[in-house]
Design goal:
Blueprint: H1 3-7, H2 10-13, H3 18-34, E1 40-41, E2 50-51, E3 60-68, H4 72-78, H5 85-97, E4 103-113, H6 118-134, E5 138-146, E6 156-167, E7 182-187, H7 196-205, H8 210-220, H9 228-237, E8 240-245, H10 250-254, E9 263-267, H11 276-285, H12 289-295, E10 300-306, H13 311-320, E11 325-333, E12 340-342
Helix pairs in contact: 3-6, 5-6
């Protein structure tokens, strides 16, 4: 192929660079391969990923979920820090899987941009691959799309898809929670990947000096914690009645999803100290307590609902695995309309 033909490639003239896509595939092959285990049938660059389910499950149930990173992508672009965005993408999916007791098996990503920046994309996909390794799941495949005219300037978006497996008899669901159970809140690393439309507005309108803003931006861009290894360890060693992943909607809207309709939870807000970044957002954004707990995780990224007699040992084990955790409340019979009461 001559240089003239390449330069006059009609697709490239329309804004889509096929060669850049091919270069990205070659650049990420090693990172993707590192995530593969004996269950993956090697097929990088093929039309579909293949995964052989092993025989560790008696009555296997496949569990699937999908999510994105939201406008945290925009903030990362604005301040030139996309190093943790890939982990955010993986975490938002695999953290949902483990809520029902499913062990993550594999992950797929979708990366769409106005114009493919190979350096930028390879950083993000390496972050995705590293997060898959930390979550004991394979990066089975993905799709990269250039969409000039649809995405404006240098914008891009990410979506992730995860599949896990759990034995039917080991499924964790809301019906297992009961009155008298204790809630153990496990630390978050910051806002994770939720509330960023509001975060970006607060940062934009803030009168804080550059040094203070730099510290806040660093805090809000910290990647979402990957909980699978921790939770799977706990599931294998303790009786966990129910689990709630605290994402969009905060404690207020996520906890009711993990209990029956006839139950409520009472949260003691003094049981943990709200991290500084959330205090800053609350003050700068003039946000009420109710809205803080409805929008942000406020320092609690995952909540376990466990038998009271087991709570101390479970909390101790979580600490041994280097996660801060707190006894934040209790499950009670529902006596009013609200499912979550703060005291």
């Amino acid at each position: 192929m001559t240089k003239e033909i390449i330069e006059n490639d009609p697709y490239k003239l329309a804004g889509v660079d096929i060669n850049a896509g091919n270069e990205l595939v070659e650049r990420i092959k090693k990172d993707v391969s590192k995530t593969h285990n004996v269950n993956v049938i090697e097929n990088i660059g093929g039309f579909a990923g293949m995964y052989k389910l092993n025989k560790d499950y008696d009555d296997p149930i496949l569990v699937a979920c999908t999510d994105g990173v939201g406008t945290k992508v925009s903030l990362g672009q604005e301040f030139n820090d996309l190093s943790g965005i890939g982990q955010d993408l993986v975490a938002m999916c695999v953290n949902d899987l483990i809520v029902c007791g499913a062990n993550p098996l594999f992950f797929l990503d979708y990366y769409a941009s106005s114009k493919l920046d190979v350096d930028e994309a390879s950083i993000i996909i390496k972050s995705i691959a590293d997060a898959c390794i930390k979550s004991d799941c394979a990066l089975l495949g993905g799709e990269t799309a250039e969409m000039p005219g649809h995405y404006i300037d240098n914008n891009f978006d990410l979506a992730g898809f995860a599949v896990g497996c759990v034995d039917e008899k080991k499924v964790i669901n809301s019906t297992n929670a009961k009155s008298g159970d204790v809630l153990i809140g496990i630390e978050s690393s910051g806002p994770h990947s939720n509330g960023f439309s509001l975060i970006r507005k607060i940062i934009k309108n803030s009168k804080a000096d550059k040094e203070e803003l730099a510290l806040i931006i660093n805090e809000v861009l910290k990647p979402t914690i990957l909980y699978p290894k921790l939770i799977m360890n706990l599931i294998n060693n303790f009786n966990i009645n129910s689990i709630s992943h605290i994402t969009g909607g905060g404690l207020t809207e996520n906890l009711p999803r993990s209990i029956s309709n006839n139950l409520s939870v009472e949260i003691k807000t003094s049981s943990w100290e709200m991290p500084k970044v959330f205090k800053w957002l609350k003050k700068e954004g003039d946000i009420s307590d109710d809205d803080m707990f409805r929008i942000f995780n406020c320092g609690i990224g995952m909540v376990l609902i466990v038998n009271k007699e087991d709570s101390e040992n479970i909390s101790k084990k979580i600490s041994e695995m280097n996660f801060k955790n707190y006894i934040i409340g209790m499950v009670k019979e529902k006596s009013h309309e609200r499912s979550v009461i703060y005291s």
